[in-house]
Amino acid sequence: MNSLKAKYGKDLRALTGFIIIALIIGYMIGKGQMATITYLLGLPILVGFLAIIFYNPIIALLYSFHLSFLSNGMMRFIDTQIPWGLGIDFLLLICILATLFKKSEQKGTRNFASPLFWILFFWFCFTLVELINPEARSKEAWFYAVRGLSFYPMQIVALVYVLWDTEEGLDQFIKIWMIWSLVSAFYGFKMHYIGVTAGERAWLDNGGSITHEIQGQLRIFSFYSDAGQFGAAMAHTTLFALLMAIGPFDKSQKTFYWFIVAACFWGYALSGSRGPLFVLAAGGALYLFLIGNLRILIIGGIIGGLLFGTLKYTHIGDGNYQIHRMRTALDPNDASLQVRLDNQKKLRAYLASRPLGGGIGSGGSWGQRFTPGSFLAETALDSWYVKVWVETGVIGLWLHIISLVVILGYGIINCFRLTDPKLRQKIIALTCGYFGIAAASYGNQVLGQLPTGYIIYLSWSYMFLSIEWEKEKKLQGKSTYVKIS
Q: Cβ distance 446 to 229 under 8 Å?
């Protein structure tokens, strides 16, 4: 008997343990506690995932970036009340904790001397002060709204500085961005040529059709929050890929980028969004300035002027819905523009005696959720800058604009200082993309929304890091100066 126990003791204990677990699960199923069982079965997976992150924190940062492309539209695919956006908060928090515990990952702390981090930190501190704004009606609204306004930028830039601060990291970021953009573009094509899913149809029927089904035409939104965000993302990717396609890269890379230009430009057109036109216009104009070539500047200016004149002063292509929608973006008498201007007049009168605004989260969707019926919640904001003005007042608006201009200024200066032609082209493309998004954010709330906001925060990081890489190369005797004509 003792020999049998010695031989089969471990197996018997394991079998007994499994039987007990099976009985517990069976009992819980009988009591209808499936949710609890799901949590228990998912717990080992969660623990294993956390262990991997604490071993290699950058995984959480990468997952949060991937999730940023899906978080806003996931509700249309999975019928659940799960707050997908908070998944990004969870991943960023775990990434920060894992980085703090893993001392070997602290190699990039020297980057915190960068002006970018302190600009974002100062802006975040100002948004903290908004917690005691006497006009603010909801602390919970502040928590949700402050993430895209100031918390995500500071967190993401800090984590990039520590974990992802290399040229290889820049290339990886670009690849992820380009691949997700292609996926979203082709999913948009599926919506346009094949149709929408039951979940997407339900979303349209529950109010989305008001702004997304116009004159019998569906404005494509892919798996983004809405057509405006999808259009801006597609225009942003189109601009970046175009500047990369004409850059000093090999034939296979150029072919890849030209393919992205074609796919994403058509995705932008199918969105029926007008504001993203300014992503291409503003970003393209900055590029012509940055390359410093007078001949190309003149040619580009002529081409741009002809395109503008065609849209502004002719009716060529009006029979095409996409071209017609682009044309209305340049019409000062457009009905929706007049409504926006009227709303801004009302807001100007309301905010005249409120220099700190109505409180973060008081306007837009968060206002409608947490303070329904209030003046700010019921007044359409549309513009990102109007949103910042409404929620943080004229003081906050000026601080925010100054921050954005300073970041752009550093990016432009670094574009002129960089001498490595390939790196310079990448940073030029990122800087022009940022400027395009900043310009388009006057008409839409683009800058703080996912995934565009996440892409911009990563772009900022590499716009500042790039000059440090070149300094290191020169110190190591690896400068690859090539004159840019």
A: yes
**184 token code pair:** 């979203």
Q: Token pair 């984590």 is at which residue? A: 159
Angle (CA) 152 455 366, round 5°: 45
The whole-number average pLDDT for the span 42-47 is 69
Task: State the pLDDT at residue 483.
Answer: 41
pLDDT range class, residue 331, cuts 50, 70, 90: low
CA dist., res. 232 & res. 278, Å (int): 9
Give the per-residue pLDDT at 481: 44
Nearest alpha carbon to residue 359 among 121, 126, 123, 131: 131
Identify the band that residue 19 occupies on the pLDDT scale cut at 50, 70 and 90: low
Residues 367-386: b if buried by 16+ CB within 10 A, e if exposed: beebbeebebbebebbbbbb
**DSSP notation for 407-446:** HHHHHHHHHHH---HHHHHHHHHHHHHHHHHHHHTTTSS-
Burial of 167 (C-beta count, 10 Å sphere; 0-12/13-18/19+): middle
